Amino acid sequence: MAKKAKNFKKSRTGLYVSLGSTAFGAISVAKQAKLARADGDMLRLADAVVSAAAIVTGLAILYRELKRLGDDDVLLG
Questions:
Q1: pLDDT (tens digit, 9 = 90+) per residue, 46-59?
Q2: Which residue windows are transmembrane per the record (predicted)?
């Protein structure tokens, strides 16, 4: 059971779940940036920018892993 859960993150389904959760994080960061701009709070805006950069980096890593899984799949080419 533990081994099955350990390999979930490297599975295609695990990557899709990670992509989905990262997308929800992006929505949260967008709301934070919008509120920071409305309030004129530069510190919150800087936090939102750094968080957005982390999300973009995370998405790039997840995309790379998904692409690697696709390289092994005969049906995806």
A1: 999 999 999 999 99
A2: 42-63
